[in-house]
Amino acid sequence: MDILKRETAYDGFFKIKKLTVEQHGHIFTREQFDRGDAAAALVHDTVQDKYILTRQYRIGSESELIEVVAGMVDKGESPEESIVREIEEEIGYHVNHLEHIHTFYSSPGGATEKVYLYFAEVSEQHAAGGGNDHEHEHIAVTAYTPEEFEQLQTPDAKTIIAQQWLRLRRLSK
Question: How far apart are CA 131 and CA 135, in angstroms?
């Protein structure tokens, strides 16, 4: 498949591109949700031995979700810098250790978003968290024991991937 032309079809809070493509002699158009990249982290408070997650309303699911800390990678920021910032903003912790788990596309059939998933160790909450008012974030900080986190039922893919990674990590020890 060759991309012949790329146009902006919508430029609001999100962006949608209209692509003209050629494949096997056929020319047609496809829309692409230009989301940018995201960073996410499974956060473990090593003092409390609890996993710190967020609960917030998500417009895509039209519901509140419990999920790992996550946010968009800002222009000029590395994914690592981004997730450290998001952990500070959303749950009020400084990061002691950061380990990359995996990078994946959230929905490659039509969206550009790559998610950089990390495991973060923290030891002291220095602020309440809750997100940024200017971004209209209303984030509740939630804490789970290892057993509670393993049993957590969520439709959020990045959190499910983090759960599976943690299960495999425990099995390999």
Answer: 8
